[in-house]
Design the sequence.
């Protein structure tokens, strides 16, 4: 019975999301880097602050909220994969060229030797 | 969150420490549910929970340099949230838990939610001392083991276990009482 | 005497024809045993999807990236295996023979086979031609403490490869498609 109660308590106590407008304002403040204000019940009387930072921060926060953490991280993963693929392409072509150079040097040296032999050097 | 997400959040933390505010916002977004829920269930009302949540993340702003990993960040957030909530509660005589009519959910919405259990849980949370309440939430909301709870709250492990045991016993008694009441109802 | 209709005849022949079509993709072994002995190993496997992804991350405004982007445009795969050891003769030629044997298959033409006494490096370069166009390249380089296998699939523009000189240090090889050897690898 204890296990059942514990299981139901865990289910009931799963984290809940705050209100969306609170979330948005919180993100906006974080992005704007504003220090904590002493206790307005309503967050941030916007009229007291320049509009520009508020708008920019709000837009950025809206974007993060809209996209969501998982999606943002998925985009980060894709970017990392793309950059890794690019790195591998560059490395592959670099290695290929390095080995081609070995062949070139061998051919060049052979040509030089043959030329020297012909001219009696 | 799976391991891969944790690793990517480590990357975001590194960027946030270098001053990238968008990375910091991603971390806030990733952790805010846990912080808000702890605050709500410790303090009892949405307004107080929102204030505390805001304060905690603003405090994080100034402490990023001390955070070593996303896992450490989780620990730090839980610790600061519960400690600040305990401090606030010690200044007040009794917590008024959110009324049932409040539109902001106190508990997670489950299809087979047990409203009676939730009521008992809410009563229990209101009756518990602030430290005992924090222990209960860290165990059943955050799924920490007693050792981690002890570390988070700077509390001896045996005290943590004792709080958990008593809370569980109370819940069991209430549930048994609830079952007896149901039996009586059905027999009449 | 039975008469076969032409379409049926061609349909029956199709699998055989498909089998005979040149395939520039080499089957490169895992080299698990050698990988353990190696001090450094490079494994690059770029299929069409990864090449396309890489292309999106190459900066067209950067000369090296732009040149790279041009080269990989017609490619369908790049496969590299390279192992470096801390002493001479840590690997056997037999280890590479499984790959070399595939280059005896129809379609592959040896472009150049070099042996350098100075560097003690042997480099063999093969290309596969189909319809007067290079569709695959295979390079095997064996040095005392390293061997490298490169297999490039797709429409390799050897002219563009020329023009990479200076970007990756690629030399100008005197490669003229009209002078490539006849079908069938030469040993």
Sequence:
């Amino acid at each position: 019975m204890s296990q059942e109660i514990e299981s139901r308590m865990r289910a009931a106590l799963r984290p809940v999301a705050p209100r969306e407008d609170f979330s948005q304002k919180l993100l906006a403040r974080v992005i704007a880097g504003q220090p904590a204000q002493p206790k307005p019940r309503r967050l941030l009387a916007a009229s007291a602050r320049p509009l520009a930072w508020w708008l920019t921060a709000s837009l950025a926060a809206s974007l993060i909220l809209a996209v969501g953490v998982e999606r943002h991280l998925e985009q980060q993963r894709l970017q990392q994969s793309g950059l890794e693929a690019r790195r591998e392409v560059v490395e592959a072509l670099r290695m290929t060229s390095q080995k081609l150079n070995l062949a070139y040097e061998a051919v060049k040296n052979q040509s030089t030797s043959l030329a020297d032999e012909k001219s009696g050097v | 969150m799976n391991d891969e997400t944790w690793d990517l959040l480590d990357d975001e933390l590194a960027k946030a420490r270098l001053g990238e505010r968008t990375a910091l916002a991603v971390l806030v977004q990733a952790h805010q549910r846990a912080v808000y829920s702890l605050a709500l269930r410790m303090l009892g009302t949405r307004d107080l929970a929102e204030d505390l949540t805001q304060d905690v993340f603003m405090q994080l702003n100034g402490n990023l340099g001390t955070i070593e990993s996303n896992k450490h960040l989780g620990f730090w957030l839980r610790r600061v949230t519960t400690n600040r909530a305990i401090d606030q509660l010690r200044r007040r005589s009794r917590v008024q838990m959110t009324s049932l009519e409040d539109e902001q959910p106190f508990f997670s919405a489950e299809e087979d939610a047990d409203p009676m259990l939730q009521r008992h849980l809410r009563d229990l949370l209101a009756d518990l001392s602030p430290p005992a309440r924090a222990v209960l939430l860290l165990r059943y909301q955050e799924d920490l083991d007693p050792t981690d709870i002890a570390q988070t709250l700077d509390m001896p492990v045996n005290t943590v276990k004792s709080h958990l045991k008593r809370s569980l016993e109370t819940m069991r008694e209430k549930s048994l009482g609830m079952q007896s009441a149901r039996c009586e109802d059905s027999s009449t | 005497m039975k008469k076969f209709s032409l379409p049926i005849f061609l349909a029956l022949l199709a699998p055989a024809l498909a089998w005979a079509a040149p395939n520039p993709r080499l089957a490169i072994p895992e080299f698990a045993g050698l990988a353990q002995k190696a001090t450094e190993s490079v494994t690059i496997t770029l299929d069409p999807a990864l090449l396309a992804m890489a292309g999106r991350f190459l900066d067209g405004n950067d000369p090296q990236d732009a040149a790279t982007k041009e080269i990989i445009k017609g490619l369908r795969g790049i496969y590299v295996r390279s192992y470096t050891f801390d002493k001479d003769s840590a690997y056997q030629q037999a280890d590479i023979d499984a790959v070399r044997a595939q280059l005896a298959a129809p379609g592959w033409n040896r472009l150049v086979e070099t042996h350098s006494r100075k560097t003690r490096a042997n480099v063999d370069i093969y290309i596969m031609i189909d319809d007067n166009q290079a569709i695959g390249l295979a390079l095997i380089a064996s040095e005392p403490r390293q061997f490298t296998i490169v297999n490039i699939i797709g429409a390799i523009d050897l002219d563009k490869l020329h023009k990479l000189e200076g970007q990756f240090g690629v030399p100008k090889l005197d490669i003229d498609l009209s002078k490539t050897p006849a079908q069938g690898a030469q040993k």
